[in-house]
Amino acid sequence: MKKSIGLIIGVCLLVVWGCTTDEEEIRETEAITSISKSTSSVPVPDIVGNQIVVKFDETLSTTRKDTIRILLQAAQNFVIQHIEVCDCDPNGPELWTIDTTQIGSPRVETLIGGIEEVVGNLDNNSSESDLEADLQFYFNIDDDRLPGMYASSINDKIVSNSNPDIINIAILDTGIDYSYFPGQFLYNTSSTNNGVTDISGWDFANHDKDIGDDHGHGTTVAKVIMSELDATNTPYAILAVKAFDKIGRASYFDVVCGMNYISKLTDIHILNMSFGWYAIQGQSILENIMKSVENTTLIITSAGNLGVDTDEPKNNHFPSGYEVDNMIAVGGYELRTQLTNSPTVQDVLDEIIIRGSNFGAEYIDVVAPFDGYDLTFHSQGSVITTVHPIGTSFSAAYATARAAQLHDRGVAVLNFKNTILSSAYSLERIADSINNGNVFVRNHMNQNP
Predict the structure, then answer these.
(1) Residues 243, 258 contacting (CB under 8 angstroms)
(2) What CA–CA distance (Å, rounded) separates 428 from 106?
(3) How far is CA 381 from its chain centroid?
């Protein structure tokens, strides 16, 4: 039994895909998955019934990892059929496709619930911290189609590293269509000496270095951020890390891999994560990788758009609901009435309501505009399209720009977070819904960026 398991693992590990792999190579077809449907009132993602996301302690040797896999399968009565590793990091998180058809095999929910404890009891050489295990599931971001242009060479968009004041901003999303943006603005990963062949970012949805956005959401998020920074002459570089495909769908594993990739870069100052899912709790791998960058990176997350109280366990939203000290969770506010072209701050505060956005005084740190972003996309001087995005994805994007405008390399991340939140207005009448009633009022409301 153990010999056959070891053989399966050995074969599976030969089909990994790294950032140095030839882009023309054909990727092995993914195994057919088993899906369990949710009937909850919030859209709980569908759990893949035969896959597990795992992450070993990075100090363990390859031999020790193999031993843990073999012992764990024997103890829990399942078989690992296939192992996929994250692009760019063969020693990082893994996705196991497993066979649980044997009599007595546990469901993945049961298996994951006790796997760390089981590992800790395997032998005298193991501890609970040697392996983390999470559910694998798929979730979507809001449909935000933007006609693709794809007319530029990425090499023409790489920003020079000569300016020490540049704020490096990562966007974990659907990628970016850099043809819509003039000049050089993309973060240069080819100069990081990390041994990979990426130019700027990576596509974990399609497993290549093409970060082009074939959906539109990531490009729109980037447009909000960049428009705000251009208006204040704030220097920046954008790193697009793609985890969502052309229909706005991502797996938890691809998001984990994207976060893992970002965590290896020590000079990313701010990370925007304008997405989320509901009710699947205890996904410790992503949460712990987010915590691992607490000394280098401030993370901005969106709170979701169902208009529900995410403090209630049945409505918990993640990653905005994680207990991550270096994170700011952003909700959105709307205005009861249309204001003039030059409203005062008090005018805005008087009209604020929270309607489409999720809320929760425990988990949501601040609100920013939910709508009012009139974005015009150009190509060679001609207007291609104008979009009016709505949702907390763009509230988070605005908060990301606010953070970049206030960034100080000499300030520790947690102190930087406090500085940003201290810059918000405190609106007492929404303090029961948002932490301290914190509000970011947009500096140039109703103006076309």
Answers:
(1) yes
(2) 50
(3) 33
Q: Estimate to the nearest angstrom the gap between the alpha carbon of 87 and the chain centroid.
A: 16
Q: Which residue type sits at 53? A: V
12 three-state secondary structure? helix
- Amino acid in position 389: P
Strands (E), 130-199: 131-140, 167-173
Long-range contacts made by residues 57-65, C-beta under 8 angstroms, separation at least 24? 57/129, 57/130, 57/131, 58/91, 60/130, 64/125
Write the DSSP assignment of 193-210 as a string of letters. Answer: -SS---SS--BTTTTBS-
- Residues facing residue 36 across a β-bridge: 47
In this structure, are residues 257 and 92 in contact, taking their beta carbons and an 8 Å threshold?
yes
Cβ-based neighbours of 167, under 8 Å, separated by 6 or more: 229, 234, 235, 236, 237, 269, 270, 404, 407
Amino acid at 125: N
Q: Is 313 helix (H, G, I), strand (E, B) or coil?
A: helix
User: Are the C-beta atoms of 349 and 295 separated by less than 8 Å?
Assistant: no
pLDDT greater than 90 at residue 13 = no
Instruction: Give the closest residue to 426 by CA, choosing from 417, 414, 439.
Output: 439
Query: What does the pLDDT average to over 238-243?
Result: 97
CA distance 262 to 370: 27
| pTM over the 0.85 mark | yes
Q: Find, among 220, 215, 222, 221, the residue nearest to 174 by Cα.
A: 215
Q: Is 109 helix (H, G, I), strand (E, B) or coil?
A: helix
Residue 319: asked if its preceding bond is cis (omega within 30°), the reply is yes
Q: At what angle do helices 284-292 and 252-263 cross, to 10 degrees?
A: 20
Alpha helices of 147-240 — where are they, by DSSP H?
A: 217-231
Q: Dump pLDDT digits (tens) for 116-145.
A: 778 878 887 878 788 999 999 999 998 767
* pLDDT at 94 (0 to 100): 97
Q: Which of 436, 435, 171 is nearest to 329 (CA)?
A: 435
